[in-house]
Amino acid sequence: MMSKLNLDKLDYQIIQAMMDNAEISYADLGKRLFVSGGTIHVRMKKLQELGVVKGTRLSVDTHMLGYNVIAFVGIFLEKSSMYNSVANDLQKISQVVRVNYTTGNYSMFVEIVCKDIPELKEVLHEKLQNIKGIERTETLIALEESFNRNVQVLEEE
């Protein structure tokens, strides 16, 4: 069980601002939130040590880089106790970008990004189906992504 984090309003403001624009400097963010850049730096270090902030990522348009197929795969496991070993094996497949343990019809739900359908077929048939513990899969191909965003951690004022 996770202990209470004891985050205050400033922590949430920093998190929200950085999710909106991770390129903002600590000095500029400090000015916006009426604190020093040093305070922002200290708070970010605390948030990183607590594991709330896990780093920063570059957001890219995968379609512009030639990755034209996004698929979601529902995975049925032979036994739910095999989740960890299957998740570890899935992590080794570079085209798998997200893995969730789920309730409902599937044991796991996976997002896969590929350049084309032949690559997706290879991932499904040559890689996924060879993982010990996967009983069967069901694949859905995304036709379009309408939006993708972070959660809002602050109430809108």
TrEMBL record:
SMART domains: HTH_ASNC. GO terms for cellular component: cytosol. The keyword Transcription applies. GO terms for biological process: response to amino acid. It comes from the Bacteria. One of its GO terms (molecular function) is sequence-specific DNA binding. Residues 7-68 form the HTH asnC-type domain. InterPro entries: AsnC-type_HTH_dom, Dimeric_a/b-barrel, Tscrpt_reg_AsnC-like, Tscrpt_reg_AsnC/Lrp_C, WH-like_DNA-bd_sf, WH_DNA-bd_sf. Keywords: DNA-binding, Transcription, Transcription regulation. Gene3D superfamilies: 3.30.70.920, Winged helix-like DNA-binding domain superfamily/Winged helix DNA-binding domain. It holds the Pfam family AsnC_trans_reg. The keyword Transcription regulation applies. This is Winged helix-turn-helix transcriptional regulator. It comes from Rhizosphaericola mali.
